[in-house]
Amino acid sequence: MKKKLTSCKSFCLGLIARPIFRLSLSYLTIIMLMSLQFSLVIYQISFRELNRQMPPRSLYGRFPERTDHPDLPQIQDFLQLRIAEGKDNLKNRLVYLNISTLVIGSIVSYLLAKITLKPIDEAFLSQKRFISDASHELKTPLTALQISNEVALRQTELTREQAREILQDNLLEIQKLTDLTSSLLTLSNQSASPSQIIQIKLDDVLNQALKQITPLAQCKNITIEKHTNNYTIIGDPNKLAQLIIILLDNAVKYSPKNSNIVITSELKSNKVLISITDQGIGIAKQDLPYIFDRFYRADPARNSDSTPGFGLGLAIAKQIISEHKGSISVTSKPGQGSTFIIKLPTA
Prior knowledge:
This protein is about 65% helix and about 15% strand. By secondary structure, it is an alpha+beta fold. It has two domains: about 10-170, no CATH class; about 200-345, Heat Shock Protein 90. A five-stranded mixed sheet has the order 2-4-5-7-6, covered by helices on one side. A two-stranded antiparallel sheet has the order 1-3. The chain is elongated. It starts with a helix and ends with a strand.
């Protein structure tokens, strides 16, 4: 018996500790307080109206000829009985109304709490997933550093060239860690840093991005062609330039040498459409729904050691475009390249 009571107590305490229960209880308390107050007002008004149905005794002195009727006491008793019955019926109906409000309010409160907590739960799960993924990605280069140093320590006769090679590998892994932490900080600070929303020219944004990406493209003899109109758009110039840089950087990474990348623009339904098309390895159909998720890399990119990256660039791009109330989409076929389309509001 004690075990049952203990388990029941634990269950109740666990239920009360749940945020959805506490929030539902708060909503229900508000609903019931409003219902009880409303019922009290109805009862007071109805009580006064029922009492008005009984003639005041002062009225009998004004009309003595009417108060001598032999049936008057029975009439008064009948009126008092009907008024008392009316009061009882009113009380019962108000009690029934509040019980119904309690039942319906419990359901409504639970649904409201569920709707309220849904974005909070999603944000918490997203943060938890982000921390888990970040820990995993950070562990990989750290493990490589540890193994490399342990192997070096076991070697009794380490030549100068071998030591230099080990140091170069260590520096490479440290650079990976630096790039990863930089991307993580950028991703976490995107929403925290306020955006400077102003009217800007599209060419200013594209030229700022091309200035940084062109040297990388030249290393692979990749030509970037720009066929755009100088539309006026609304947004943060630095963040929009970062968005274009991310897309162009990916296009250069996954494109073969001596290929072309084309940037075009058009105006459609008060939106500026910016398209970036490459001749790279493309993206498989099953990977397309996930490429904007944090740390997600399609199979060809994941299996290629020569293509650096952690799968954070497109997640940052998605966050930037969401802040600007725009959209980003992609069409791609393996072996035929990809086209990323950005939609931004015009001035």
